[in-house]
Amino acid sequence: MARVLTPRAEDFPRWYQDLIAKAKLADNGPVRGTMVIRPAGYAIWERMQAEMDARIKAAGAENAYFPLFIPESYLKREAEHVEGFSPELAVVTHGGGKQLAEPVVVRPTSETVIGEFMAKWIDSYRDLPLLLNQWANVVRWELRPRIFLRTSEFLWQEGHTAHATREDARAYARRILHEAYEDLMVNVLGIPVVVGLKTARERFAGATATYTCEGMMGDGKALQLGTSHELGQNFAKAFDISYSSAEGGREHAWTTSWGTSTRMLGGLIMCHGDDNGLRVPPKLAPVQAYVMIVKDGEGVGEAAAKLRDALRDAGVRVALDDRTDTAFGRRAVDAELRGYPVRVEVGPRDLAAGNAVVVRRTDGSKAPVAVADVVGAVLAALEADQQALHDQALAFRQSRTVEVGTLAEAIEAAATGWAKVPWSAVGVQGEAEANGQGVTVRCLLRADGSVPDSEDEPDLVAVLARAY
């Protein structure tokens, strides 16, 4: 397999590009920085969408859709927001063969347009909280694109909410952070994330607090997998999102926003992939069990179809590969590349002995199993391997994370992994110094690992790393 993919240890970025191409996950689009997500990659994204969407709805948010084009004046009304996004904006100045009276921006995020409509829809405290989510594409002109990680156009969900009080807004931003984002990443994607508070330097433009889920990739770098923001009353004041209180006064609402994107696909590849290709956690996998006919004849096709049906009846997402006109070795390599959690190989020789061969992608094990026991063996493997992938990723993160006492030690440690250092030993000046050497403060934690409310809390721990 090393001849199919560049080994990770030899050239991690090349391995990543090789895997995306050979597993047929995505391709570069015709405009620089854009991507085409192929069916194999999009199937994984659809599973991420479904799992995330269910969690968002469980938190009370409803899906809506807002326009791709946003009047430039909307962004200018929230000065800090437009300043944060200015270099990334794509601006349309002509339409229908004529110059537009006002340029329109292709949405980099939808705070401003959703803020405009929140102001229209909210009148009384009885209209709060207003909890909205949108599945959409956004455009941020990317100078150094990399498929799934940084592209000029990408897919995501963006949630936007308005609340009567700061406490309610903070509680909801935290609820999404933990119950939607952290839960999905840990329990479905199998990525053990560190959840913390961004520093003022790193937080979202226009936010008063940004919370983040950070995952360690297979090369020791960090990847921001999702963020949830408290926006205070900044957008509410800019767009007059106000309501009549129960006491009869007029108050500005407190708002939040939060988002995850196709970047999670890149994180999945880099966290779990190996030199043989992708490894997809069973709970996420579009195909959990891949039944393969090694060689047809002698009842093999019928036996394989029965196994497929039995697995489907047991609730397993299953596919049958009966392409015997293609060499079995090539098909097996493709299955490894795609990361199907379990393969069930059915051939004349094993079938004559009453067996099929069960191959587990996570550890590469291969064992003959009586045909009558295949369903049970597959179900057990799926459950065990979901946990195994998480545990392997956690063990790797722990092995590449060191606790240090100074900024210099933290910057040195970030060459190979993550460093935990007292925030008081870094501070605003130290953070700027680290940034100058390609190292960022990924997040701040309390000593017990919980998420702080402010970077001014005493005894905070900073996590420093190089990042994508």
UniProtKB/TrEMBL annotation:
It is an enzyme of class 6 (ligase). Keywords: Aminoacyl-tRNA synthetase, ATP-binding, Cytoplasm, Ligase, Nucleotide-binding, Protein biosynthesis. Residues 32-281 form the Aminoacyl-transfer RNA synthetases class-II family profile domain. InterPro entries: aa-tRNA-synt_IIb, aa-tRNA-synth_II, aa-tRNA-synth_II/BPL/LPL, Anticodon-bd, Anticodon-bd_dom_sf, Pro-tRNA-ligase_IIa, Pro-tRNA-ligase_IIa_arc-type, Pro-tRNA_ligase_II_C. SMART domains: ProRS-C_1. Its main location: cytoplasm. One of its GO terms (cellular component) is aminoacyl-tRNA synthetase multienzyme complex. Homodimer. This is Proline--tRNA ligase. It comes from Micromonospora chersina. The lineage of its organism: Bacteria, Bacillati, Actinomycetota, Actinomycetes, Micromonosporales.
